[in-house]
Amino acid sequence: MTDHEKTDAKVEQAKGKVKETAGRAVGNERLTAEGRAEQAKGDVRQAKEKAKDAFKR
């Protein structure tokens, strides 16, 4: 996994967590759902990069 792609995945996960937490704090279900979706997107990106690394070996 390249450092840039790894960082992008982590940033996306962190942004999603912040959105989810903010959505829960203010009772905004849409924002909470967006946060969960963004976290999942970051998880998928990270998994993809890990799979690419595994096949490089």
Characterise the protein shown here.
The protein is mainly alpha-helical and 57 residues long. Helix content is 91%, strand content 0%. It has two helices and no strands. Helix 1 (3-26) runs antiparallel to helix 2. The relative contact order is 0.21. The model has no long low-confidence stretch (mean pLDDT 91).
Shape: elongated
Taking the sheet with the most strands, its summary is:
none
Order of helices and strands: HH
Helix content bin = over 70%
* Total number of helices: 2
Number of DSSP strands? 0
The radius of gyration computed from the alpha-carbon positions, rounded to a whole number of angstroms, is 13 Å
Distance between the termini: 12 Å
Q: Which structural class do you get from the secondary structure elements?
A: mainly alpha
Strand content: under 5%
- The averaged pLDDT comes out at 91
Low-confidence regions: none
